[in-house]
C-alpha cells in the first residue's frame, strides 16, 4: 500500500505594508479598515486554510531621513485585530507576530492565552527579535541588546511564557459548585534567568489546544536553532525548490538535538501566486503586477539601501551605478537589512544585470521576486503540491498583492484542484490550530508534580 499523501498547510498573510500591494489597482481597499481584515480572514476560512497571519512593524520606517513613503503608513495593533477576528471566524487559526526584545514574558503569556481562550484554541505567536536601536527608541531603551543576545532573550521570554501557560493542570477548568470555585488555580512560577527574575501565577487556565502554536521567522544560525528548540512552524524566505529543500533538511535535522520528532516543526515559506486562463495570460499578469509593485521610485530606493547613498540622479531604466557602495546601514531605518556585504552584493548585481541585459528597475524586479507560482489554477495547484511532496516545505504562507480580495480567486479555483489531488483537506477535521497543523498537544507541567 502506498504511503498516505503528505497534506499541504496554507496560511493567509494580510498585505498592506511594503511595496507588495498594488495600490494602483481599482480593487485595492484600506489596509486598516476592519472590513478588510474580515474579508481576507473569511476568504481564508472558506478555503479551509490553517491560519490567518499578521506581520509586525513597531516603528514607521525611514529612508534617507524621511518617513518611507513607499511603505504604507497604518498598521493596527496585532492582538487587538486578532481578538476581533476571533469573533467573526470559527475554525481559522489566528497568528500574530510579536517581538521578544521589547516585551515581557508574563504580559505576552497573558495576552496570547487570552486570544487562545477567546478563540477556543486557535492562537499562534510568531516570535521575532528585531533588535535595531531605531525601533528600540519607541520603547525608551534604544538598542540595549547586542545582536548576539537577541536569541538569548528570545529563549528566556518563551521559556517564561511557557512556564506560565503550562502551570495549570489540563483538567483545571471544572465547576465545583460545592466549594463555589470555577477553576483550580495554577501553581506558582519562578523564572530566574540572565534577563528576568519573575515569580508569579498565571491568571488563566490552558486553552483547548494547551497553549498557542509557536512560529519563528529569523534565518541566522541562532534563529534556526531557536526555531528547532521552540517553534511549531518556521516562516521562511527560502521558497525556491532547491533553497527550500536545503532549508527544510537543515532545520529538520536540528530537531533531533532537542529530542523532537521531524513532524513536530512545519516549514512554511512565503509565496505569491498569479493566476490566468492560460500560461501566457498568467505570465502577462505577473509582469504587469511586478512592474506596478516596483515603480521607478521604489527601484531607486531599493538600490539606495544597498549602495548606502543618494542615487536619485540615476535613471531607473538605465544601467546600474558604477560608483561603489558605502557602508551606511542607517540609510533605511526600521527594516531588516539583508545585504550584510554591500560591495559583494553590488558586484553580483552588476554581473547579473550585464549578463541578462537588465536595467535598474528590471534588476530590482528580478532580485525581489518572491517564489511565484504563475499559471492556470491546475498548474499552480500541481506546483504547490510538488514542492510539498518533494520536501521543499510543508505548505505556504500566501502573500497576496491585493488588499483584501487577493485570495478570492485562489480559494475559488486552486483549492478545489488541491483537493482533487488528495493533498488538501475538504473540511476542517479539528477545531484547534494544533489539530489543523497535525501537532501534538503540549503537556501541562503539573503532571509530574501531581503523580509524585
Ligand atoms: C520571513 C521573515 C519574516 C519576518 N517578519 C518579521 C515581522 O513581521 N516583524 C519583525 O519585527 N521582524 C520580522 N522578521 C525579522 C526576524 O524576527 C529577525 O529579527 C531578523 O530576521 C533577524 O534575525 P536573524 O538574524 O535570525 O535572521 C522576519 C524575518 C523573516 C526571515
Automatic annotation (TrEMBL):
Entry keyword set: Flavoprotein, FMN, Monooxygenase, Oxidoreductase
Annotated binding of FMN, by residue: 97, 151, 220
Coiled-coil regions, chain positions: none
InterPro entries referenced in this protein's UniProt entry, alphabetically: Diverse_substr_monoxygenases, Luciferase-like_dom, Luciferase-like_sf, NTA_MOA
Residue ranges occupied by any Luciferase-like domain in the UniProt entry: 29-389
Keyword Oxidoreductase: yes
The family this protein is said to belong to: Belongs to the NtaA/SnaA/DszA monooxygenase family.
Name of the molecule in the record: Putative oxidoreductase
Amino acid at each position: 500500500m502506498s504511503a498516505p499523501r503528505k497534506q499541504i498547510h496554507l496560511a493567509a498573510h494580510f498585505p498592506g505594508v511594503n511595496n507588495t500591494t498594488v495600490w494602483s489597482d481599482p480593487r485595492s481597499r484600506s489596509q486598516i479598515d476592519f472590513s478588510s481584515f474580515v474579508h481576507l480572514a473569511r476568504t481564508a476560512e472558506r478555503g479551509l486554510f490553517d491560519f490567518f497571519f499578521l506581520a509586525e512593524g513597531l516603528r514607521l520606517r525611514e529612508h534617507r531621513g524621511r518617513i518611507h513613503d513607499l511603505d504604507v503608513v497604518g498598521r493596527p495593533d496585532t492582538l487587538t485585530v486578532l481578538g476581533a477576528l476571533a469573533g467573526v471566524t470559527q475554525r481559522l487559526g489566528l497568528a500574530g507576530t510579536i517581538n521578544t526584545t521589547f516585551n515581557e514574558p508574563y504580559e505576552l503569556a497573558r495576552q496570547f492565552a487570552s486570544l487562545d481562550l477567546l478563540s477556543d484554541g486557535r492562537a499562534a505567536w510568531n516570535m521575532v527579535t528585531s533588535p535595531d536601536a531605531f525601533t528600540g527608541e519607541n520603547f525608551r531603551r534604544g538598542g540595549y541588546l547586542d545582536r548576539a543576545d537577541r536569541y538569548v532573550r528570545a529563549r528566556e521570554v518563551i521559556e517564561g511564557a511557557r512556564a506560565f501557560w503550562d502551570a495549570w493542570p489540563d483538567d483545571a477548568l471544572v465547576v465545583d459548585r460545592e466549594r463555589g470555585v470555577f477553576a483550580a488555580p495554577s501553581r506558582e512560577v519562578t523564572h530566574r534567568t540572565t534577563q528576568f527574575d519573575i515569580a508569579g501565577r498565571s491568571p488563566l487556565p490552558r486553552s483547548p489546544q494547551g497553549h498557542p502554536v509557536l512560529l519563528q521567522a529569523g534565518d541566522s544560525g541562532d534563529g534556526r536553532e531557536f526555531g528547532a528548540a521552540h517553534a511549531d512552524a518556521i516562516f521562511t524566505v527560502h521558497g525556491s525548490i532547491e533553497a527550500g529543500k536545503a532549508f527544510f533538511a537543515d532545520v529538520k535535522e536540528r530537531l533531533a538535538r532537542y529530542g523532537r520528532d521531524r513532524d513536530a516543526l512545519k516549514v512554511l515559506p512565503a509565496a505569491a501566486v498569479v493566476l490566468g486562463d492560460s500560461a501566457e495570460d498568467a505570465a502577462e499578469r505577473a509582469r504587469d503586477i511586478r512592474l506596478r509593485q516596483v515603480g521607478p521610485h521604489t527601484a531607486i530606493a531599493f538600490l539606495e539601501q544597498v549602495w548606502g547613498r543618494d542615487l536619485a540622479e540615476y535613471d531607473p531604466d538605465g544601467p546600474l551605478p558604477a560608483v561603489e557602495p558605502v557602508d551606511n546601514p542607517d540609510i533605511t531605518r526600521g527594516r531588516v537589512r539583508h545585504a550584510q556585504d554591500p560591495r559583494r552584493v553590488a558586484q553580483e548585481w552588476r554581473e547579473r544585470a550585464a549578463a541578462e541585459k537588465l536595467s535598474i528597475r528590471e534588476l530590482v524586479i528580478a532580485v525581489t521576486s518572491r517564489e511565484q507560482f504563475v499559471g492556470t489554477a491546475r498548474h499552480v495547484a500541481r506546483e504547490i503540491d510538488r514542492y510539498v511532496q518533494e520536501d521543499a516545505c510543508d505548505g505556504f504562507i500566501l502573500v497576496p498583492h491585493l488588499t483584501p480580495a487577493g485570495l478570492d480567486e485562489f480559494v475559488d479555483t486552486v483549492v478545489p484542484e488541491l483537493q482533487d489531488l488528495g493533498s488538501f483537506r475538504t473540511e476542517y477535521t479539528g477545531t484547534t490550530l494544533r489539530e489543523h497543523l497535525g501537532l501534538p498537544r503540549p503537556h501541562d507541567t503539573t503532571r509530574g508534580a501531581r503523580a509524585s
